[in-house]
Amino acid sequence: MDHTPRPNMPPLENFWMPFTANRQFKAAPRLLAAADGMYYTDIDGNRILDGTAGLWCVNAGHGRRKIAAAVERQLATMDFAPTFQMGHPIAFEFAAKLAAHAPGEGQARLDRLFFTGSGSESVDTALKIAIAYQRAIGQGTRTRIIGREKGYHGVGFGGISVGGLVNNRRVFPQIPADHMRHTLDIDRNAYSRGMPAHGLELAEDLERLVALHGAETIAAVIVEPMSGSAGVILPPKGYLERLRAIADAHGILLIFDEVITGFGRLGTPFAADYFGVIPDMMTTAKGITNGTIPMGAVFASRKVHDGLMHGPEHQIELFHGYTYSGHPVACAAGLATMEIYEEESLLSRAGELAADWEEALHGLKGHPHVVDIRNLGLVGAIELAPRAGAPGTRAYDVFVDCFHKGLLVRVTGDIIALSPPLTIEKEQIATIVSTIADALKRAA
Ligand SMILES: Cc1ncc(COP(=O)(O)O)c(C=O)c1O
């Protein structure tokens, strides 16, 4: 590759890049300059098919004029206003819009919205709400949170404590947490189409952790209903139902981290709808504004919300919030995003494409290095055998190769993860698969 400086290349040394091998990247940068529909354009003018919806967030495709217009209008009308002991209409309107899509019935309905600025903030907010709720109902000894190995819940201290990715954890202190085992079992479930058949018994880990710590010490259990960041790990059939039952039996709140699965990724508004299991809270971000303006939201049940609405009315019920909770410009972007999802039926589109998507991805079975293929909704993963002594390098090479051939994929370890915008067409699915197939042939 040619590394000579190009006239359109900015200085690279000042931006300390997140989750990036900074020195490797800056020696051979990949810079995206524009985006429209299903495509990015890099700084050299090459078109790149977006196989990852940016970072699992651009569900309605890029460059949506409606969102840009709404943001421009809101910026000109009111750029910022506080939401501490103050309010502005658009935050309430957006909460009501989201609430209309919320799963659950009666007191279990998840239509009480706490706004944040990101997925990590949503997670830490939900964990704090869980602990505060338990205390408010007289269960103040419940301060521990149960997560799961390989879980990803962002990078706040709460999120890394319940998360289960060692590199995100080993350097940092954590809040009291423990972990169930993850549900990835390639030996038994390789090449499952959709949800794997084996592994329901892993839900009993929650029962074991109750026996180990005592239910009276546990506030909540948090899981991604489908893990994205660790490489698309699916719940075995019946697993989430069982978690719900065990949590209920012990007074433990169930939190679904829907930062990736929220807003149509599986063909339903939320994974809770897809699996038919209603948690006590859902954490969201990303697709809430189509990735345009940073924002997140915790969907809490009426039961959890109402449990905290106690004490004298002049008293703040939850000492928590962010300067940008309910930011008017983010709310404008979110409202326009939800309107696009509704007008174009995007929250169900993954369901219509799922069979073709599954068929196309599983066509990569038997290609060089492939050891497993996983899919659900409009999510997919191709797991490769690692190179001896150099885990992760093979998938990374495939990622770089695909990029130079005009396709953006994501890699984690030796897994290639796919989650295109929900606006993808069938021919583009075919392009994704053929580009990966060619890259696999070239990969050593
Ligand atoms: C399930 C899950 N939770 C939380 C997060 C963190 O979100 P953010 O990067 O917006 O803080 C992510 C990000 O990928 C995620 O996938």
TrEMBL record:
Q: Which GO terms describe its biological process?
A: biotin biosynthetic process
Membrane-crossing residues? none
Q: Taxonomically, which superkingdom?
A: Bacteria
Q: Which GO MF term does the entry hold, naming one?
A: adenosylmethionine-8-amino-7-oxononanoate transaminase activity
Q: Which cofactor does it need?
A: pyridoxal 5'-phosphate
Family membership noted in the UniProt record: Belongs to the class-III pyridoxal-phosphate-dependent aminotransferase family.
- What is this protein called in UniProt? Beta alanine--pyruvate aminotransferase
Please tell me the species this chain comes from.
Answer: Xaviernesmea oryzae
